[in-house]
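In this section we walk through a basic example: taking a raw amino acid sequence and producing a predicted 3D structure, encoded as discrete structure tokens. The instruction is simple. Fold the sequence below.
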Amino acid sequence: MRIAAGLIFAGVVSLCATGTAWSQTPAPKGAAAPQAAAPVAVPAPARAAAPAAAKMPCANPNALGIARVVEIDTTGGPGFGFEHFKQLDFLREKEVVLTFDDGPWPLNTPSVLKTLADECTTGIFFPIGKHATYYPEILKQVAAAGHTIGAHTWSHATLTNKKLTEDQRKEEIEKGFSAVKWALGAPPSPFFRFPALQHPPEMVTYLGTRNVAIFSCDLDSFDFKASKPQTVIDSVMKKLDKLGKGIVLMHDFQKHTAEALPDLLHKLKDAGYKVVQMKAKAPVQTIAQYDEEILKDAKLRQAILHVSARSRRPDRARPAFPRGPAELATAKADYPDEDSWRDRIGPFQSQGYIVEPGRCVIRGGVRTCRRAFRHRCCYRRT
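The resulting token sequence is shown next.
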């Protein structure tokens, strides 16, 4: 999508005013593990960024590793990724930035983390706010591994939807950052990616005022359309061979991506590609109003997703669905449509619940969730 030229010009001017858009730190020769970026003379942030565990030396002598670290000054909201932003280009030939959207998610995100750790390399993660509140412990693992974390809205709403007001679009952005901050216990990087890469010009302008960098991509893996892991590998390598470098868009939410990643990283190394790590100079400054909303949502979710005392296996206790008119009314009020209700039951799927086509009925051996949307039913076996 074409964006306002004036905003990009303003962003570049702002970046130039600081001296440079980024600082570069090459990884020491012979070391595959990531190194800290060079110190930059900027004011200390009010709060520290999400903590990362100290990195151990890489145990894999043939690892893909990290070629260098690029530190980004996000003043003015610079844009990255030639799909939409062509003003800033810091990648050299045969360099890539790995990015992962839509997490955190059970099984798939931990699998991606393990593969990256085995290759002593890194990526940028753009989690959905709701998913961050579902699985904060997984997102903490992402931070502990030293990866950069941004945000990808609160509910993955397409912000070009004309039914959304400007305030609702801003809420999607800000609640996304606040949710990630709640999950991590510290603010993430001021890096943002629009769902479906749809950039409303007014929201691009808004992010500029918030000093949040916008990430598009140079090549999209389209892994969400893939029917098997090999399709993901072929898509990425074919596009990289054509472009020679780029920011790669993938999804740690997708099973095929997690399965494809080990072979994909091996192919990148064999083809001579190198990974660049991107970091922000300072963490995002979230807005107190949205921090408070996330805290209230989290408390409400804990009240609804209480552990069933009737679980036959205490070591595998499961949350119960809403019971009674009051709880059900609260759920309906918070999640009024099909898409948001599907997000609502996301945590249940990972804990033994089933969502499939069919009618919601109560039968022997099956307990329904008492809430059906188009031709779907969610229940669990007792």
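Looking at the output, two observations stand out. Residues 1-20, 28-53, 307-329, 347-382 have pLDDT under 50 and may be disordered. The chain has two domains: 5-280, 305-381. In the next section we compare this with other chains.
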